[in-house]
């Protein structure tokens, strides 16, 4: 985006925020304006009415009228703001004319290959109009029937159910389940009309196909290519029924599994992760794809529990995206190829230095956004250019965010100086905002007591997680990566992998040891992971945070509870009991004692005791 356009669009969005518009409204306006200005090199003041008309004409070819209108409305609002601020005199955005439908909207707009079909379809649409159907519904019926009868050239009275299924099967992988059902409904409605008029003796369609009512809704309703797959699918659906799942949930699960397995000749256990996710790239929303994959994941978890296969091929979407990709390489191309090469070199150096994947991904995402549309090379970017960019966002970003971003840029430019790509870094130290040192937010003893009381009613796994956090002060990522083999019950130690893949031993209490042993005794799976989900996969960091947060809410703590507060609590408690700072640093995995010294403050109770001792 042109730099001046970028500044004015941000100014306009900030004005929406100041006018107390909803966050969702501002986000929608932002997306539409980005869509319009993204590839435009000219400034907003130079864009003419003709430019906008060309853009609109292209939009109308691809998008619905309603979508075009809302895009124009956002653009019009932006230019009205520019007029108000006196950046321009007149707005180049014209009032968009609504499409005027043909007066005879119930008549087919295209000529069908078969004249008999053309006559009867027009008669059907006229009947729909006379029965009071609204314009939108009739146009929808007309569009679908046009498409169907252009493809199926037979006379309507000789069309069979097989012809209809074959035509819809060609598009089934591209359409959502709703679209498929809509087409079946329209075709059935048309043939129902023909039957009433005695143009045909029997309808070529079965009513149950669309209504979806069946006595045994937990059984597969469509032919499945592999009979063994069909048997296991029916077994899974019956299991859902016996477990008390609702009829709607079972029917939706059944439809998805039918769609996935219908044409697959291979046994379900031979289907790979790649095949599942490539099938998931349908022409539907990301939310719908995630829902489809979740139903397939549930089926495969059932198969693993039954012993039909050792491991489920369905992994989570984020894990699939990460597979086979070098996370230290920019995923999106930059405008300037030179920038891309040097940034990739910098990210590779971070990997060589053994920095964590999360850190490298953060740098990768930020540098990709910062240099995305910059045509100039990184060596030619001046301090003034970077400062201008910084000023644009200083009202939107928190001081800590600004400091983090500047730190990332500074690290990149320091690398460039060390590699002799440039003589001096353009980043100035005085730009870094001062961040007041925050005191670690630990749990007071009454709060710890509340948490311990709440986990008494939790399942044994969640109790073990909280006890391990309190006893070791581990980071959430360290607990997430633990395997059963990492636990030494005899010496009450755990081998954890910390930041920078540094391995250390941490100690835990006898109480924690007993709870861990009880938890592992309840496990029936053969997985090596210490903490697992119901689907017998490794418990993720997000799930651990969610469990801890829920426990904090149940305990009615004043501040939100997260795993790192247990770490602060562990360090503060050790310090209050007289533990040496070096020992605490070793337990926490701190390389620098200065980090550990942030805990060297008195607790609230100690301050109160000392005040009363000296002041009375």
UniProtKB/TrEMBL annotation:
BP term (GO), one: DNA recombination
InterPro entries: CB (IPR044068), DNA_brk_join_enz (IPR011010), Integrase-like_cat_sf (IPR013762), Integrase_catalytic (IPR002104), Integrase_recombinase_N (IPR010998), Integrase_SAM-like_N (IPR004107), Tyrosine_recombinase_XerCD (IPR050090)
GO MF terms, alphabetically ordered: DNA binding
Name of the protein in question: Tyrosine recombinase XerC
Boundaries of every Tyr recombinase domain copy: 438-612
Keywords annotated in UniProt: Cell cycle, Cell division, Chromosome partition, Cytoplasm, DNA integration, DNA recombination, DNA-binding
PROSITE patterns tied to this protein: CB, TYR_RECOMBINASE
Record Pfam families: Phage_int_SAM_1, Phage_int_SAM_4, Phage_integrase
Keyword Protease appears in the UniProt entry: no
Organism annotation: Solibacillus isronensis B3W22
Keyword DNA-binding annotated: yes
Subcellular location: Cytoplasm
Core-binding (CB) domain boundaries: 3-83, 158-304, 337-417
